[in-house]
Amino acid sequence: MLLEKIEALKGQISNLKAENEEALEALRIKYLSKKGEISELFSEFRSVPPEQKREFGQKLNELKTLATDKINTLRDSFKAKEKEAHKIDITRPAMPDEIGTRHPISLVRKEIIDIFSRLGFTLSEGPEVEDDWHVFSALNFAADHPARDMQDTFFINQDPDDVKRNIILRSHTSSVQVRTMERQQPPIRIICPGRVYRNEAITARAHCFFHQIEGLYIDKHVTFADLKQVLLYFAQELFGKDTKIRLRPSYFPFTEPSAEMDVSCMLCGGKGCGFCKHTGWVEILGCGMVDPNVLKASGIDPDVYSGYAFGLGIERITNLKYMVKDLRMFSENDVRFLDEFEAAH
What we know:
Phenylalanyl-tRNA_Synthase, 345 residues, aa-tRNA-synth_II, magnesium, ligase
């Protein structure tokens, strides 16, 4: 009879659980106090025949040890939880913790890169602090060419006697294209995203720094028709399948012929509204066929290879997609502004 009670209590104690310290103390009293169930079994032990005392005594001691260990284990777990609950990390931000969002520039940058990646363009990046050769001279800007005035530059080091010794903050990511052409023979098919700098007054429509993505494709028999089709695909993937494009003649020192590309206004569908100044069109990028002088400067034979290039400002595209009226909002670090793009992920 006593052996059955011991085995029954073993099963109960092995499965003990407690919600809190009070419940645990109640279990301790039930099993281990002077009037507890284990103490009662020790009282019954006195009536056990002498030849069985050793066996029963051993089992009772094992039962008491099991109960004590179980109670202590549960108590230790409560103490550990309490200690963790009171642990304060003074380096953590103040509560409540808020989930952040990606910056709209990052969202649009990724979307543009994904579109051109599907066309086989690979990513290429370069330094923001550059020399004159990679930013201007290798791109067909002569030392005294007035086109240099189109891109007011931040100088790190300026030599008035020799522009080729100038060190500047790059004014476009075309410098990455030059570096790629210098180290790699065609075929070349790259896009070059990055931050660029120009010495301009900061207004709602302009900033002294912004983000660009430029593209370059050089191979045999590349034509302007290839460029137009790629840009049409890009515009329709970015703004919708009904988007139309138009190319207007323009001038860039590093491309010939050159063009500005407009897309049909996404607000009015090309009918004309205040956003597109009632023209039905919105300008988004510049493009053209790579000038043979640019190919020669990087060691590529223009009699064998031809290519096209294009460049666009990410802020400009972001403005069009999300109707942001003030460029300064992108760099003011106002969390309320960033929260508006949570649904755009």
